[in-house]
């Protein structure tokens, strides 16, 4: 790895999805928008939302990974991306479709689960209040 390059690891819950040396730039998507990382950027942590992570290896064209929500941590020249799911594909349009159909759909399902849990929680609280009137 050269002085002006980073080391990128994409981690899934059960395995290392990808490991790349000599990464010269990374672009990631956060809830606040897209951010770019260069090797000399200060250390940071970023929350990732489902989207396309773009990275460039020294002397090559940009490469893409579709990532689910997760977190990115940059310490020195090491960048670790921990996500629930990821897909690599040469075709950027295919990756965009994967994000739309798989990762964002999961987010909709999670919202439904959260709504059900909130209803259960409020029902529990109402029942608890009925047991202990003020």
If you had to describe this structure to a student in words, what would you say it looks like?
There is one protein chain. The protein is α+β, with helices and mostly antiparallel strands. It has one helix and nine strands. Strands 1, 2, 3, 4, 5, 6, 7, 8 and 9 form a nine-stranded mixed β-sheet that branches. The radius of gyration is 20 Å and the shape is elongated.
Summarize this structure briefly:
This protein is of the alpha+beta class. The chain has one helix spanning 92-131, and strands at residues 6-11, 16-30, 33-37, 44-48, 51-57, 62-67, 70-75, 78-83, 86-88. Strand 5 and strand 6 form a beta hairpin.
Supply the key terms.
134 residues; alpha+beta; nine-stranded mixed β-sheet; elongated
How many helices? The count is 1
User: Between the first and last Cα atoms, what is the distance in angstroms?
Assistant: 67 Å
pLDDT average, as an integer?
A: 85
Tell me the β content.
35-45%
Gross morphology is: elongated
Q: What series of H and E elements makes up the topology? A: EEEEEEEEEH
Helix content, binned percent: 25-40%
């Amino acid at each position: 790895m050269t002085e002006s390059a980073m080391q990128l690891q994409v981690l899934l819950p059960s395995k290392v999805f990808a490991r790349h040396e000599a990464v010269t730039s990374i672009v990631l998507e956060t809830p606040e928008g897209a951010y770019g990382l260069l090797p000399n950027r200060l250390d940071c942590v970023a929350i990732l939302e489902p989207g396309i992570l773009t990275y460039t290896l020294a002397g090559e064209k940009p490469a893409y990974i579709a990532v689910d929500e997760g977190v990115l941590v940059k310490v020195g020249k090491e960048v670790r991306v921990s996500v629930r799911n990821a897909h690599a594909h040469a075709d950027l349009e295919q990756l965009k479709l994967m994000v739309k159909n798989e990762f964002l759909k999961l987010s909709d399902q999670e919202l439904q689960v959260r709504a059900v849990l909130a209803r259960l929680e409020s029902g529990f609280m109402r029942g608890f209040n009925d047991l202990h009137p003020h």
